[in-house]
Amino acid sequence: MPLEPSQLKVDIEQQRLFLFWEDGTAKDFSHAHLRANCPCGFCRAKRLQQREIEYPDRVAISAIYSQGYGIQICFDDGHDKGIFPWIFLKELSS
Question: For a surface tag, which of 21, 40, 54, 60 has the fewest beta carbons within 10 Å of its beta carbon?
Answer without folding.
Answer: 54
